[in-house]
Amino acid sequence: MTHNQPKRQSRRQFIKVAAGGVIISSSLASPDTVLAEANEQTRVANPVSGDVLRTQGRLSDDGLKIVESQREIQVAGKTEVLVCGGGPAGIGAALAAARAGASVQLIEVAGCLGGVWTAGLLTKILDAENKSGIMKELLQRFAKQGSNVARSTNGTVYDPEIAKLVLEELCVDAGIKIRLHTRLVGTVLDKNRRVIAILTESKSGREAWLAERFVDCSGDGDLAAHAGCQFDVGVGTDCSCQPMSMLALLTGVEPDAIKPYIRETGSVAKRNLLQLMEENGIKPSYRAPTLRHLHSGIYSLMTNHEYGVSAFDADAITEATINARREVHEIINGLRLLGSVWKDLSVVATAEQIGVREGRRIRGRYLLTADDLANGLRHEEAVCRANFPIDVHALDESGNKEISRKFKAKGKQPYDIPYPSLVAADVDGLLMAGRCISGDFIAHSSYRVTGNSVPMGEAAGLAAAVSVKKSVMPHELKWGEIKALARL
Length: 488
Ligand SMILES: Cc1cc2nc3c(=O)[nH]c(=O)nc-3n(C[C@H](O)[C@H](O)[C@H](O)COP(=O)(O)OP(=O)(O)OC[C@H]3O[C@@H](n4cnc5c(N)ncnc54)[C@H](O)[C@@H]3O)c2cc1C
Prior knowledge:
The protein is α+β, with helices and mostly antiparallel strands and 488 residues long. The chain has helices at residues 5-12, 88-99, 133-145, 148-152, 160-173, 222-226, 268-279, 314-336, 370-375, 401-408, 441-447, 450-469, 479-486; strands spanning 2-3, 15-17, 23-25, 43-45, 52-54, 57-59, 66-68, 74-84, 104-107, 177-179, 183-189, 195-202, 205-216, 231-232, 248-251, 290-295, 298-302, 346-350, 361-362, 382-386, 415-418, 430-432. Helices cover 29% and strands 21% of the residues. The strands form six sheets. Strands 2, 3, 8, 9, 10, 11, 12, 13 and 22 form a nine-stranded mixed sheet that branches. The chain has a four-stranded antiparallel sheet with strand order 16-17-15-18. β4 (43-45) and β5 form a beta hairpin. It binds flavin-adenine dinucleotide (FAD). Flavin-adenine dinucleotide binds at residues 84-90, 107-110, 115-116, 122, 124-126, 183-184, 217-220, 222, 245, 302, 355-357, 434-435, 448-451, 453.
């Protein structure tokens, strides 16, 4: 589905041009919800303390809306670079920008850094083997501080708890200002459509953060969407996105006793596990259940699909989360009932955040396409080379034979991810990294994996820092110049 954002703004997004020429883009709400700008704040007495309370709005006459009052928002921080989202891409961006000498603020809604790596309990880093820079450094740290399994897989099978610690240590050491538990809910643009601030909500209330450059690493492209950038979602119609999955950690079985089912012993392990489940009346919604041994009898499991869930519909994500968690527990209960080696199998934890494969793909200055993958794109501004296959998880329960037939037949070769696909097309001062960069549905199904997200983040963070140093916008620099200037 292509979203023509300027058209949408009139329907869904409020933009107010204030006297100073600053554009405030609020949450993606209907224009009616902000009619209240002119309303006075109401003062009422707190019945308990007697203090004067200031209400922040009033109920509209039809009782269907809250009309918000105009208010001033405290500036909580000012840095040269602000990174929204502390997942694999955000870690790469924040570290690269900080190490290039920029002051960096990292905003993350979860209670830990790492995104799908940690809050999502992922445990496997794909397409990282040919990568240098921060990706290589992270693999080394995950291996060094992790288990025997992490060491024997060169850090690509990692422990999410170790990852949380390593990422915090690296970011703290680099001098990055980290704010957890804080969600971006709006942006502020100047009259030249340059992003100059973001708005967040947290236990500290609504806050504003100023920066010279912004990097959207929110996975879903929240910052760019709030800034009014055009974006695409899915393959063509509403919610035609890849399914969501909830990952889980398990324990209670001996690795040697269940070896044929452990992913690291070969791809036949998935078939073995599916067969075991189906022969015993367990029907997982994901037909390639993946069980990994992390260390000392702790495993990770992916075995469910939630179809047709929009990443921007909190009700739908809530329902998917509850369904997925129930399914994980039902499957584990079913396996435990088999007795024998499975008799003590239990769930250690399900992910706090259901795994979202697809959100917005923000329009950049280059659109990476399925043809680029088929042709093995070589680009003079390549920030990294991706080598992961086209991997579209079934879009519904019937599978995705049509997509597989059409695109997998064309094939894929190692291809470059060009710097301009990380630079927002519609506003200035904004870069993207990770799964929200500019690409089509098929290309996204390949480049989205975390071994590519980190180098994309590293490139975007470096570009942000260098463009501040040189007082130019990110789109005014070529990738070659950025690397050269970074060394000066
Ligand atoms: C179920 C599943 C299995 C996968 N399997 C693999 C695999 O085995 N190996 C692999 O390498 N890749 C895998 N992937 C793909 C990969 O995990 C993602 O594509 C990758 O994490 C993208 O990195 P990212 O940093 O762009 O996004 P994310 O990891 O999604 O990180 C985005 C971060 O931004 C934060 N955020 C979002 N919105 C806001 C906001 N408004 N304000 C503040 N913070 C915000 C989030 O909390 C999160 O921390 C899988 C994905 C899923 C969902």
